[in-house]
Amino acid sequence: MNRMDDWRMNSSISSFKTASFIPSLAGKTILVTGGTSGLGTQTLLDLTHHSPSRLIFTGRNSTSADAVIQRIKSINANQDVVFAQCDFTSLGSVSATAKKIRAEDERLDVIFCNAGIMAKPKAVTKDGIEVQFGINHVAHACLIRTLLPLLEATTKLPDTDVRVVSTSSLGFMFANTIPLDQMHDEGGMDMGFMGKWKRYGFSKLANQLYASELARRHPQITSVSVHPGVINTGLIDGIGLWNYIFIQLTTWWKQWSVEDGVKSQIWAAFVEKEKLQNGAFYEPVGIEGRVTEASSNKQLAGSLWEWTEKEIERWL
């Protein structure tokens, strides 16, 4: 990213006012993954000012969830808000949570796919998938696919505009492909000195490709991916001293607050539909995102979709 790009993004961030941009959300049901901290919590707080009919958020820690609910209620005492406890390292847990939502809710207008991890040591999920790819991509794909009947039913209701907003990152540029055949091979995912970042890049590229493929296969649902900016959140906790220093040295002049970090996804969720290209990737705020050969590879997007379907089919 050159300094002109930085200027454009900083100017766009400073001029975007979340409170005046979000419309009335009366009658809407909205789901936020990773809502117990960081961008997820801030998204919930921003939304509750506009009185959605129902807010649902996922997370693992019920104590943290209780604290978030208290903050929401301090803004809007009448807000219907539900914590859906869920472990994104387990597709069984994700599936059970999604099926419960599908059974209990009559509509679902927006999903913010916000939960994620970054630059973690080599590991696998409970389903044996490389952990960053498993949490950042496969778990969200399982959630979306399980909720797809509810999303599609909502599109048939009057005056609806159903959207899925997936949080990607410029970290996708670490990846020039996705080695799908290695995602269950923990030893094969070592990749040396920059391995953590390469594995993160695979997951963030997958977020983009899956969003675009969802838009292609289900065009009645608006599906986009966004880069939130470089946000100083809990995402960088526990990534190790070298990685922390790497982030600070390469991004210190363009780091934003959590309040600014949600603006990209808020824009994508509520901008007028005609100003949004279904399946596209956006940088803050509403700027057409950078494209690489891999991120525009339709064949790779199709292969990712089919591979993911096989991973999650038993849970749908």
Question: Can you describe this structure?
Answer:
This protein has eleven helices and ten strands. The chain is of the alpha/beta class and 316 residues long. The protein has a single domain (3-315), classed as NAD(P)-binding Rossmann-like Domain (Rossmann fold, 3-Layer(aba) Sandwich). An eight-stranded mixed sheet has the order 3-2-1-4-5-6-9-10, sandwiched between helices. Strands 7-8 form a two-stranded parallel ribbon. Helix 6 packs parallel to helix 7. The chain is globular. 45% of the residues are buried. Mean pLDDT is 90; it is low at 245-253. This is Oxidoreductase.
* Percent in strands: 5-15%
Rg (C-alpha, Å):
18 Å
Stated plainly, the CATH topology is called Rossmann fold
Largest sheet: 8 strands, mixed
Shape: globular
Could you give the order of the helices and strands? HHEHEHEHEHEHEEHEHHEEH
- The CATH homologous superfamily: NAD(P)-binding Rossmann-like Domain
- In total, the number of domains comes to 1
Query: In whole angstroms, how far apart are the ends?
Result: 40 Å
Give the assembly state of these chains: single chain
Total count of strands: 10
Counting helices, strands and paired strands, the structural category is alpha/beta
Helix percentage range: 40-55%
The neighbouring-strand order within the major sheet is: 3-2-1-4-5-6-9-10
Question: What is the mean pLDDT?
Answer: 90
CATH class: Alpha Beta
Number of helices in the DSSP assignment = 11
Low-confidence runs of at least 5 consecutive residues: 245-253
